[in-house]
Amino acid sequence: MDITYATIPLYEQVSSKNIVKNFFNIVIFFLLFSLPGYRIVSHHNHDTYWLLALLCELWFTFYWGLAISTKWNPVDYETYPERVLKRVGELPSVDMFVTTADVVLEPPIMTINTVLSLLAVDYPTHKLACYVSDDGCSPIILYSLMEASKFAKLWVPFCKKYNVQVRAPFRYFYNDALAFDQFKYSKEFEQEWRSMKDKYEQLSRNIEAVVQKSVPCDFSGDFKVFLNTKRNNHPTIIKVIWENKQGLADELPHLVYISREKRPNHQHHYKAGAMNVLARVSGLMTNAPFMLNVDCDMFVNDPKVVLRAMCILLGPKSEREFAFAQFPQVFYDRLKDDPFGNQMIVLFEYMARGMAGLQGVLYSGTGCCHRRQVIYGLSPENIEIGPKHSYNTNAEIIKGKIYEHEQELLQSFGNSNEFARAAASALNGSKADSAENIQKIIEAAHEVAGCGYENGTSWGLKVGWIYGSTTEDIHTGLIIHKKGWRSALCTPDPPAFLGCAPTSGPSSMTQQKRWATGLLEVLLSKNCPIFFTMFYKLQLRQCMAYVWVLSWGLRSIPELCYALLFAYSIFTNSQLLPKSQEPAFFIPVSIFCIYNLYTLSEYFATGQSIRAWWNNQKMARITTMGPWLLGLFSVVLKILRLSETVFEVTKKDQSTSSTEQDDVDASRFTFDESPVFVPVTALLLVQLIALATALLGQQPPAHGDHGSGFLEVFGSLWLVLCLWTILKGLFGKGKYGIPLSTIFKSTGLALLFVSLLCR
Ligand SMILES: O=c1ccn([C@@H]2O[C@H](COP(=O)(O)OP(=O)(O)O[C@H]3O[C@H](CO)[C@@H](O)[C@H](O)[C@H]3O)[C@@H](O)[C@H]2O)c(=O)[nH]1
Ligand SMILES: [Mn+2]
């Protein structure tokens, strides 16, 4: 350890508080609040719809309040990876997890690139191990990994020798021009580069060939185990593809393939279940104190990621404070102007940073480095400061004292003595005593990856990734924050990880529906953040931020109601908003103007265009009242025990667009038979009928001067503009059109609504 470095910080918290922004936040809040205020004081109407409008507006105000509290003081963390090596005597080991679940939706070449980029990170390789969980139980993945590991033996040294920035080969070789520039300087580089490129192309062809055949080989040798397996019915398959037997610093990290046991009558808990198996198998094999996890499409874009995570997680203060370091989700090959509104740039910029300024950013499932002790259930108050730390000579040892007796350990962690021992040593913070020979413990590993292993244990309840929600990430992070841990957001530039955003209408909708479902499952469970603030250590404003996120599904109801109220007021010729003669007229008008300018400024501030803003406004309406509404339904069905919620994997496309026309085509919204399009289409039809009624002068006479007026028509018109994508879909052909069956259902719903009102 270098003395001069002992006092230099490894990270710094940077605040990006914006006073002007906060001022407008408050202005909007008061304006929002004055609208229900107006409704209460103006006595001319006491109809039910007036009350309904009041409730919706109170909700909007409340929800805006949650948002401001969350966004008030955004921070993020600047890390200094070059210092960490000098600061700590010895770096800790890190287990890296990749999950994949379906070779069709998640092309193996993508998974392989993610794995290669992980194997090549700048970190002592004998301290790393990479575990790939395959929930699809596909021999193609195993085959691809085996091929990739051969390629990695050349690729990793190449990357390190030339300090390659992007270590996922498909991205590195994507733009040859960058390399050509360097050829001038080094003939040797040119040769190696060309040979590397050839080898990568060969690797992709081999994998592609196998994907085409769909069966890689004759089920012999390593592949025999796949004989007669089905996705949802097969024994555990674990293969150590590469083992750095001597623990040499210049060898490749260990690479292990895991397909956990699945049986038809056993719940497998989707990704959370897969993560828990990864935690256990790695616990037996390498037992690193830190675990970095990524989705199969999220390759490493900054080779210093692990060092960066260590900047945050090491050091005596951090060890008592930070449970995990989260990198934001950023997407590559982003479609221009975010046509599907799913790039989440503004969301990460303001909400994630805002939470980082409270108790800590959410765990968002990928690009996150966890402390194994915390995943095993350690709370800050169970920390015992021991003598010197094994991996960090500068810090004292953190001892997790939560289990006194071996019996308790077995009960919580399951009936494997080997695993209990490993878990105890992880909790004690003793040096990751990785098994002498990982092949030897394969047997124990099979046991802990079995589908019955978790029965009666704390896995998924108190230990590991938490079950019961299709957004296992937010759920697990919440349980961690509840114990009083903090978390840090790390946003290096260029981004640490890059992944795929859904590239079609339906897959985007499916993802949104799953999120709304999973979030609401948490809100309505016993793990509701409100209880955690009342009885545990979740901070109040952190709780408010969680409620903001977790109620996405709930938002569909007030939004839909309010949208329908505009149509209702036109149909019945009754007043919803103040008239232009009333002083209160300025309230909705200024909310509309200020809110839109405010959100627009967020897009400009993050370097996006006005188009991107408008696309996101449109998609926000469609998402809230389409997939989020269905997400709400699926949670209701789950509560009524009529059906279970499922994790539908998002399709990941590597964009192949080469021309401008391709881009235009890719940006066009596509539809399918999914019910998510029914409510929004019905809503659009209702608004159209309402507008037609107003235009044709078919409204009934108003009561006194309390009829509908300019604002009601304007609101309805604005909604039609927001639902323009759907309107185009009504007339589109093929996948660009809304299927007839959906149109029928929506028309039925719309007519039902209209006829009920016009009785
Ligand atoms: O049964 C399953 C289902 C999914 N996965 C994996 O989970 C990851 C995320 O799935 P994806 O379909 O890409 O979902 P996204 O909506 O893109 O994922 C976001 O939202 C999820 C929670 O809904 C988080 O788990 C993810 O980390 C986060 O990126 C992928 O690697 C999958 O292979 C499994 O391992 N097993
Ligand atoms: Mn994904």
TrEMBL record:
Range of residues in the leader sequence: none
Record SUPFAM superfamilies: Nucleotide-diphospho-sugar transferases (SSF53448)
GO biological process: cell wall organization; cellulose biosynthetic process
Keyword Ribonucleoprotein: no
Lineage of the organism: Eukaryota, Viridiplantae, Streptophyta, Embryophyta, Tracheophyta
Domain of life: Eukaryota
Keywords: Cell wall biogenesis/degradation, Glycosyltransferase, Membrane, Transferase, Transmembrane, Transmembrane helix
Binding-site positions, UDP-alpha-D-glucose: 106, 135
InterPro entries, per the entry: Cellulose_synth, Nucleotide-diphossugar_trans
GO molecular function: cellulose synthase (UDP-forming) activity
Compartments it resides in: Endomembrane system
Location of the active site: 135, 473
Identification of the protein by name: Cellulose synthase
Protein residues bound to Mn(2+): 271, 295
Membrane topology field: Multi-pass membrane protein
Membrane-crossing residue ranges in chain numbering: 23-41, 48-66, 547-571, 583-601, 622-640, 676-697, 709-731, 737-758
Gene Ontology terms: cellular component: endomembrane system; membrane
One Pfam family matching this protein: Cellulose_synt
